[in-house]
Amino acid sequence: MAAKKLRRARLSEELCERLSRHQITTCQDFLCLSILELMKVTGQSFYDVQKLLCKVSRACAPKMQTAYEMKLRKSVNQSSAFLSTTLHSLDKVLHGGVPCGSLTEVTSPPGCGKTQFCIMMSVLATLPVSMGGLDGAVIYIDTESAFSAERLIEIAGNRFPAYFDSDEKLFCMTRSIHLYRELTCGSVLKRIMSLEEEIISKKVKLIIIDSVASVVRKEFDTKLQGNLAERSNFLARGASVLKYLAEEFSIPVILTNQITTSLSNGLAMIQADLVSPADDLSLPE
C-alpha cells in the first residue's frame, strides 16, 4: 500500500506537483522523510505537516476488515473473482481460472508455450464480461522481445471467429493491449512503479510480465558476492508493488518464469527464480 501514488491520497494538485519536483511521488517516499525535511519541501508549518502525515498514513494503510468480510467480498460475484483460461481442465485445477487480486506465476522449461498462453490471456481479458472476459485493457511487459502482434490477431480470430468477425473488432482489441519492451531490471522496476495511474486512466484489467527470469539471469550471477542479495531485493520490490496493484484494483497479474537444469557434482538440479505462487508471496532466500 505504501506504493500508492500521492495523487490518490487526496493531496492538492499543487502540493503533488511541488513534491514530484523533489522525486516524492508515492506515500512511501513521503513517509520516509522527517518532519523537518517535509517542512522544507512543502513550505508548510510543523502543524500542517503533521496533518499531512496523518492524511497520507491513513490513505496507504490497509483498511481493517474481518475474515468474514473478506470471504463475503470474494463470494458476492464468483465470476469476477477469476479470469477463465477457457481451458476446461486448467480452469478446474485453478478453481475457476486465473485469480483476480493476486499474482499468478507460470513456470516451465523454455519453449513450452508460456508466451502463447500470455497472448491468449491478453485476448481473453479484452472480451466482454458476457463472454467470460474482463472488458478492459492489458499491460504487457515483454522482456524477451517474444510478443507477436500477428500471433495475437491469429489467436483472437481462431478462438473467437464469431466475435472477431471484422477487421474493426480485431483492430479495437489490439488497441487495448499496451506493450512495453523492457530489457533490464532497472527499466522493468521503473515501469512497474509507474503502473498505478496507467491502470486507472486506461482501465487496465490484466498485467502480464513475460518473463521475470530473463532480465534477472542476464544481470545477476548468483555466484558473485553480493549478487544474490541484489537479486532478492529486486524481486522483493517488484513483487511487493505488483501484489499491491493486484489487490488494490482486484485484477490478475501473470508472471512467467523459466525452469532450467544445471549440473552440480554430476547431479541434475532444477532451478527457477521464483517470485510468488498464485495466492501468496514467496521470495528466494
Automatic annotation (TrEMBL):
Keywords carried by this UniProt record: ATP-binding, DNA damage, DNA recombination, DNA repair, DNA-binding, Nucleotide-binding, Nucleus
Pfam families: HHH_XRCC3_RpoA, Rad51
Compartments, record wording: Nucleus
Record-annotated RecA family profile domain positions: 79-259
SUPFAM superfamilies: P-loop containing nucleoside triphosphate hydrolases (SSF52540)
GO biological process: double-strand break repair via homologous recombination
GO molecular function: ATP binding; ATP-dependent DNA damage sensor activity; double-stranded DNA binding; four-way junction DNA binding; single-stranded DNA binding
InterPro entries: AAA+_ATPase (IPR003593), DNA_recomb/repair_RecA-like (IPR016467), HHH_XRCC3_RAD51B (IPR058766), P-loop_NTPase (IPR027417), Rad51_C (IPR013632), RAD51B (IPR030548), RecA_ATP-bd (IPR020588)
Protein's UniProt keywords contain DNA damage: yes
Function: Involved in the homologous recombination repair (HRR) pathway of double-stranded DNA breaks arising during DNA replication or induced by DNA-damaging agents. May promote the assembly of presynaptic RAD51 nucleoprotein filaments. Binds single-stranded DNA and double-stranded DNA and has DNA-dependent ATPase activity. Part of the RAD51 paralog protein complex BCDX2 which acts in the BRCA1-BRCA2-dependent HR pathway. Upon DNA damage, BCDX2 acts downstream of BRCA2 recruitment and upstream of RAD51 recruitment.
Family under the similarity heading: Belongs to the RecA family. RAD51 subfamily.
Record's subunit section: Part of the BCDX2 complex consisting of RAD51B, RAD51C, RAD51D and XRCC2; the complex has a ring-like structure arranged into a flat disc around a central channel. The BCDX2 subcomplex RAD51B:RAD51C interacts with RAD51. Interacts with SWSAP1; involved in homologous recombination repair. Interacts with HELQ.
Protein name: DNA repair protein RAD51 homolog 2
Gene that specifies this protein: Rad51b
